[in-house]
Write a structure and sequence with these properties.
389 residues, mainly beta, AttH-like fold, 13-stranded mixed β-sheet, eleven-stranded antiparallel β-sheet, 3 helices
Length: 389
Amino acid sequence: MIVPGLESASPRFAAESAHPSSAIEWWFFHGQYQGAVTGSRSFMAALFRTNLAVHNGGVSNGFQLMLAVLDHGTAASGHESATWIDRSLLTMAVEMLKTNVPFVDPLLQQAIAHEIEANGPPHPIVLMPKPQVFEPERLRVQWEGFELSELETGFALRFPEPDSGRSVRMHLAPAASRMDVSCASEFVPLGTSMAYNTYPRARLTGRLDSGEQIDGDAWIDHQWGDTNWFCDARSGVLLGWDWFGINFDDGSDLLVMRHRDARSGGTLAMHATFRPHGGAARTVYQLTLTPLRRWDSHATFIEYPIAWQIEVPQFDAVLVFEPRSDDQEIASFGFMRAVWEGAGTVRGSMHGATVRGTARGEFHGYGYLFDDQDGVEANGRRVDGQAPG
């Protein structure tokens, strides 16, 4: 979709085409849109591409799509999500589960392999035909009701709302130049480095299939590289992360990320990138994240930290992140099972001044079951605690 008046090239947008030889790559969009009838909604759309043949020196793609909306006007949670995978990704997962050295309980790994081979991915993940179009150069993807296209001015995005099924079409034009996140392997020692491009602020214009006009803003990420952010193949350690993308009301932006051992919770690396309004970005590598509140998922029984205190001493920053809704969990294909990915607000102080703004958080790797019996016992305790006396 091209929005009139936005067709000409933008100096704020650089090429974000695919990198087919990379083991993994994703494009992430998170923001909010509003319309006269629809009201205000947060949304997330993330397309993941996995090179299934990377270890053989080839290119063979598998895809996962994660979608979510959060209706700000709903008294209850108002959060709905959808996760799609294609058959290539499913086939690869079965083969790896059957042949690879287990990172989790071996009996659990074999049971999962047989289950998804016979019955497909676990609910609510949907098995879809492969994308009808994937063009890596000047990115263009068409996958059932989902479309993503790289334009000279930004991205054109279309997706079905998981709750209503309505088609949402939008153009996302960066409001400032790309912010390169410095997470090279000498600073974030997790194997080979992951390339990380981000546009913290993008203007959003578009419409629903009813013709209703919408506008808003969004955060855009594009990342690619090896799988070292997910697991350390040498040690057999599965990894997770806690991530925050923050837009302050004064026009400045902050990205905060901590990588951790998913089993022990120990911190392995951390980085924070701050860009003042109209200024240059600066990255530092010391910060402290402290959970303030946790939430138990009724769907997966995963416990997530969802409210946080964020301290970055070199930016004189002490911030508190609060989610817009506790339940912003999204199903994910694989041992991780699900991720908490959602909208929030931030307040606190930075550089000696009071600050507040909008934010999004991603809390990844809390759903691994490292020991089958521990998982059964933990879930049993939760069920017992919810049963009537």
